[in-house]
Amino acid sequence: MLAWRLVPPSPVRSAGRVSWPAAALLSGWLVALLLPLSKGNAWGWASPATLGLLALAAVLLAAWVTVEVRSRTPLIDMRMMRLPTVWTTNVVALLFGAGMFGVFAFLPQFMQIPATTGYGFGASVGVAGLLMLPMLVTMAVAGMLSGPMTTWFSGRAQIVAGSLLATAASAAFALAHHHPWQVAVGAGVFGVGIGLAYASMTSLIVHSVPAAQTGAASGMNANIRTIGASIGTAVVSSIVTAHLRADGLPAEPSFTAAFAALGVASGLAMLVALLIPRQARHTAPSPTLLPPADSPPTPAPPAAATSGAAAPGAATSGAAAPGAATSGAAAPEHRPGVHGDEPSSLDPELDPARP
């Protein structure tokens, strides 16, 4: 209700219709993929239900891509998804989703392991939440500062830095988890990395696609992040429960290996972030402002008559035509695409068809 009343509507309106077959296939392959990832440990990774749903997800994914490529009004434009900035940022989102939700799910469980095991803190739910508080605070602060920081550090640089911080924090969880303050400090560092990376990923996506596709592009980035979260929690859960103590609790090396795996995911995200193009620009300005790149230039209007003679159609009292020079100078050259403050298609920085 508040969004409807307070958020202004978007000035960008795109013609077209919803591709319902594509929407159904998109929903189908997401459900078929996420369900076995979340239930794999309970069902068994080699069970017929798990393998069948994963195979179904692959089939529905292929069908969805085929429908989208052939559609005149695709739900998700596959050409947009192939843009260098878009696909690299989406891969980073996949890896960051795995790392972030893996920490969210299993770091509190680590804190609540009884101290009698020799490595847990025996923390209550409330105490575990307080130890996670530095992560949430630093994540919020870093996310808010990410935008102003682009004056000095590009979105690409912030993602690389965030990945490096997340890698360092995951390594700290794996190697230095003997005291609560160590975990709290590591959580704060992890929050800075997540805040910088997530805010910068959204900004890069929005600034790399046409205005009419920002919603679809950012939505797919969020979906891919969710897929990464499911993969990360499934992998960490398998690692943690692989070796259990006699009392049924996970062994300390299991948590160590799980946090190390999350560090590997963050390190891979840093490597992929280095592939993001250094300068992300809009791929195209609004199509209503610029003429087609291959259209012939509009010819300049004829020069005004000299010596006070009026141009054709002007008043016969010696006055020049409206807008013409009165001293024999030619009328200003007309450039297509220039109307007041609108951008010019002759500017190579704004025209995607020009080098």
Shape: globular
pLDDT average, as an integer? 80
* Unreliable segments of 5+ consecutive residues: 280-295, 304-355
Q: Main beta sheet, described?
A: none
Helical proportion, percent range? 55-70%
Tally the helices: 10
Integer-rounded radius of gyration: 29 Å
Per DSSP, what share of the residues sits in E-state strands of 2 or more residues?
A: under 5%
N-to-C CA distance? 46 Å
The structural class is mainly alpha
**Number of DSSP-assigned strands:** 0
Topology order in helix (H) and strand (E) letters: HHHHHHHHHH
Describe this structure in words.
By secondary structure, this protein is mostly helical. It is built from ten helices and no strands. Helix 2 (20-43) runs parallel beside helix 9, helix 5 runs parallel beside helix 7 (155-175) and helix 5 (84-112) runs antiparallel to helix 10 (252-273). The protein is globular. The relative contact order is 0.11.
Which properties best describe this structure?
355 residues, mainly alpha, 58% helix, globular, disordered C terminus
